[in-house]
Write a sequence for this structure.
């Protein structure tokens, strides 16, 4: 059923000779470059005190805690020959990401079919996110290059709900929270939107996510590439279960993502390639 879903979606494309080759290609790729910015949060708010309205939308220095941003590059490279449509990993490839300004990023082999690299915002080397650029994902196996790309990496999409004058969102525990996305400018297509909620201790330590609408495995990303409409809505509602505890802090990460696809004819046309950056806000439950 899952294999049929992907094949049907791909077959609906205009099948040029190149697309026909890509439709039949066994090699597939899931690739992401996802960035989060540095985030300033209020120590008073995290401790449960009211810090008041912040000066000019900023923070008093003595009340500021900066959570460093990071950029992560991830690639899964495999074949579509697995049981039940589950991709089989390819572990003997070399994988890199190139940007149109000539930068090349060589990814590390992290395990069966998985290649990645992560860097914090303050590092001089490593992964750097650049809006507006084109990212090319290249996996080389036995001398053959398998190439996909994402054009026009999106700029940050600011969600006003996450930035009230107090610097954090006051919210009832176990109550859903709706995020309204800004209008799309310039006639461009709405980007994909991922939301993740992460508990935050009073010391600034991050816990395990309580909610995310991001796929968690390669097959899920392939299904997203085939049918992305659910991630392109004007509003996104976070369930109340994402905020289970009163008097607690949560980071809400909204990731705006543009998708791409296979470029070389030896890479499956349904390969999922995503590049994006995030807006982040803090929720304090009552």
């Amino acid at each position: 059923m899952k294999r049929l879903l992907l094949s049907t979606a791909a077959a609906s494309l205009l099948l040029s000779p190149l697309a026909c080759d890509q439709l039949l290609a066994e090699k597939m790729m899931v690739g992401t470059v996802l960035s989060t910015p540095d985030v300033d949060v209020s120590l008073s708010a995290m401790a449960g005190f009211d810090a008041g309205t912040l000066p000019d939308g900023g923070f008093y220095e003595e009340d500021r805690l900066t959570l460093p941003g990071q950029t992560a590059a991830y690639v899964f490279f495999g074949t579509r020959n697995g049981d039940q449509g589950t991709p089989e990993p390819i572990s003997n490839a070399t994988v890199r990401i190139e940007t149109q300004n000539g930068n090349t990023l060589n990814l590390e082999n992290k395990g069966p079919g998985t290649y990645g690299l992560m860097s914090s915002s303050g590092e001089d080397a490593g992964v750097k996110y650049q809006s507006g650029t084109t990212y090319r994902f290249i996996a080389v196996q036995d001398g053959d290059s398998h190439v996909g790309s994402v054009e026009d990496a999106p700029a940050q999409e600011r969600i006003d709900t996450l930035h009230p004058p107090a610097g954090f969102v006051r919210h009832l525990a176990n109550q859903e929270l709706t995020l309204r996305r800004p209008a799309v400018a310039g006639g461009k297509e709405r980007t994909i939107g991922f939301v993740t909620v992460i508990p935050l201790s009073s010391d600034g330590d991050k816990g395990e996510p309580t909610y995310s609408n991001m796929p968690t495995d390669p097959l899920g990303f392939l299904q997203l590439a085939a049918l992305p409409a659910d991630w392109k809505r004007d509003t996104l509602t976070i369930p109340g279960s994402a905020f289970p505890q009163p008097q607690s802090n949560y980071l809400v990460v909204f990731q705006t993502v543009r998708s791409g696809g296979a470029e070389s004819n030896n890479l499956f046309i349904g390969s999922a390639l995503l590049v994006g950056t995030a807006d982040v806000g803090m929720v304090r439950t009552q």
About this structure: The chain is about 10% helix and 40% strand. Residues 56 and 140 are 50 Å apart (CA to CA).
